[in-house]
Design brief:
alpha/beta, eight-stranded parallel barrel, three-stranded antiparallel beta sheet, 18 strands, about 40% helix, about 15% strand, hydrolase, Glyco_hydro_1, Glycosyl_Hydrolase_39, Glycosyl hydrolase family protein
Length: about 425
């Protein structure tokens, strides 16, 4: 299986934030049955004709402590993906951290996470593509301004603290991975947002939110923030030295900017700063152009979905609309290199944004929870078949230099993989009772 010229992908949802002040873990892999059906799920990825999967091991089950890792499930799944020659965009942290770390207010999180990322890269050296921390902005917003997840705070200071720790963790993880895999590529999946002023009195709060939406990527890519955001960051705990860390440690030249877009990504803003959903107004193409103009990076549409709806055709129509947006962006000269329907399997409890542990299935997947293909799955399979080989030859855009697992020569890097599952203790945990490999 040759490397794809254009990246068609899906993902297996591995969100795992905590709610109820840390007492309940919302583990989507558990809720969606992936721990039981992972082999079948990988079969379904191949049934769709896909060569790339957004996927990652559950951080809270794998990272047991400083230098301590349980690789059993990751060994099973990643060895199987390697045998299938499926390339992965590895999602290392998706909205939650292990209980022993606490939450995103912990100043030790960036360095600890970088150690984990480096350990993962050493164990699975054939993996080339990563999303170290998924949707950094959403993670910080939901945890510290909305009060929904993890620390469940509602202050600007908690938000800035979480954001600086999350983005620093992302950057340090990239450095750790590159030390193992110098040709690593980072697909930074991030929500692409826009805020519409409801009235003239709402222009100022809308402008503030339209500046704040860029903060995670500004810091990640080492772009100077505007003066209002600089004052906001410093007023809420970011130091000058911390700010200059982001300016001087970015790895933008290794990055593909992943833009996630859903109907819920656009918002109306009232005069008092309250927001409420506006539905699709500008759409993916226009908003992605804004992000591209700011960062000038290759782009991938890394997440979208819509519920099947009462008539059963809404998801298919949304797929076709988003694909038309992708083609429009490419035709406008933006190097857009990939598209993702997220996710493979229906999700659970996202109707409450994972704030209520009710077990409600959400018809958002290419397959339902019984692994039966949905109409959107059939439509996506046909879309992939029709367009996969056409786009690389019809586009002036660059092609992503993906190295498929079969092409990776483990001996060329000196890296090794044991192939055995189990718990590993690194040098940071010499007194661990876990089995050392």
């Amino acid at each position: 299986m040759a490397a794809p010229g254009f990246i068609f992908a899906t993902g297996i949802e591995n969100s795992a934030p905590t709610i109820q002040h840390g007492r309940v873990r919302m583990d989507e892999m558990e809720k969606c049955g992936h721990y039981r059906h992972w082999r079948l799920d990988f079969d379904l990825v191949q049934e769709l004709g896909l060569k790339v999967l957004r996927y990652g091991p559950p951080l809270h089950r794998t990272f047991l402590g400083p230098g301590r890792y349980d690789w059993e499930f990751a060994d099973l799944t990643f060895n199987d993906l390697r045998l299938r020659n499926l390339a992965t965009i590895v999602d290392l942290c998706h909205f939650g951290v292990p209980d022993w770390i606490g939450n995103f207010q912990n100043p030790d999180f960036p360095e600890l996470f970088a150690q984990y990322a480096g350990a993962f890269a050493r164990r699975y050296p054939w993996v080339q593509m990563y999303t170290p921390v998924n949707e950094m902005s959403v993670c910080a917003l939901f945890s510290t301004l909305y009060g929904w997840w993890n620390e469940q705070e509602r202050t600007d200071r908690a938000y800035v603290t979480a954001l600086k720790h999350i983005v620093k963790a992302n950057i340090l993880a990239m450095h750790a991975i590159l030390a193992v895999r110098p040709d690593a590529l980072f697909v930074q999946s991030e929500s692409s947002e826009y805020f519409h002023a409801e009235s003239p009195a709402a222009i100022s709060p809308a402008e503030f939110r339209n500046s704040r939406r860029f903060l995670s990527l500004d810091l990640n890519y080492g772009r100077r923030v505007d003066s209002q955001m600089y004052e906001y960051l410093l007023d809420n705990g970011l130091t000058r030295d911390e700010y200059h860390f982001f300016l001087s440690h970015n790895l933008k030249h290794h990055c593909i900017m992943g833009n996630d877009y859903y109907q819920s990504n656009e918002h109306h803003v009232t005069a008092d700063g309250t927001t409420y959903p506006s539905g699709e107004i500008f759409g993916y193409a226009l908003i992605t152009q804004q992000y591209y103009n700011r960062y000038r990076l290759p782009v991938m549409h890394t997440e979208t979905n819509l519920s099947e709806g009462p008539r059963g055709d809404e998801a298919v129509r949304w797929l076709r609309k988003e694909w038309a947006n992708v083609l429009r962006v490419r035709n406008n000269g933006v190097p857009l290199v990939g598209f993702t329907w997220y996710s493979l399997i229906d999700q659970v409890d996202w109707d409450s944004a994972l704030t209520q542990n009710k077990g409600n299935p959400n018809a958002l997947g290419l397959y339902d929870l019984n692994r039966n293909i949905r109409p959107v799955g059939i439509a996506y399979r046909e879309l992939v078949r029709d367009w996969m080989e056409v786009l690389p030859t019809k586009s002036v855009c660059l092609q992503v230099p993906i190295v498929m697992p079969y092409e990776y020569d483990v001996n060329s890097s000196g890296a090794e993989w044991s192939g055995a599952g189990g718990v590993e203790s690194g040098p940071a945990a010499p007194n661990s009772e876990a089995n050392t490999q």
